[in-house]
Amino acid sequence: MELIFIRHGQGEHTLDIPNSLYLKNPSLTAKGINQAELLRKKFLITDEDILFISPIRRTIETALIWTKNMDCRKIVSPLVSPRIFPTRTNAETLPCDELIDLEIIKSDYPNLELDTNVATYLWHEGINTMPDREYNKIAHEFIASLKLLKSNKIYIVSHDGTITAYRQFISGCSLSREDFLDETGWFEIKC
Predict the structure, then answer these.
(1) Cα–Cα distance between 4 and 53 in angstroms, integer?
(2) What's the rounded mean pLDDT across residues 173-179?
(3) Domain 2-190 - what CATH class?
């Protein structure tokens, strides 16, 4: 199985740091929309491919712009939601990284599938500030569940910290913030 992690396009929360980190549900900027459109040239999606998308507006927008008029499974999952990397004890989730309420996802994005194989609390809390031990258990279960899907390519549209945390978990190599992907950057790994 080929896993391709893709970071979302430029979001409004990056335009005036640190103040903009306090925006709730920031969308993509005009540049972010363009970046998402350019993904069509990099990745040819088939109807057999599966996308997992973080329940955050900028990742959903990136995935929907990129896969417009493409018939593949698109699954929103808190298992690929924002994650602070490296983990910090007593860290708090910033407003820009708060998950969209499940009912809002259902009403605003009715064509997206929801990952129903996760514990309900994850739809509220996500994996952002979760201790490493708990995250590693969830990451292990998530990767195992992806293998059961029997898809050759699974794309994960997520965030820099989340992608780096999964890369570190899967590879067993120690990574740092210097390994973060740029906007719409991607990383491919075989499992």
Answers:
(1) 12
(2) 96
(3) alpha beta
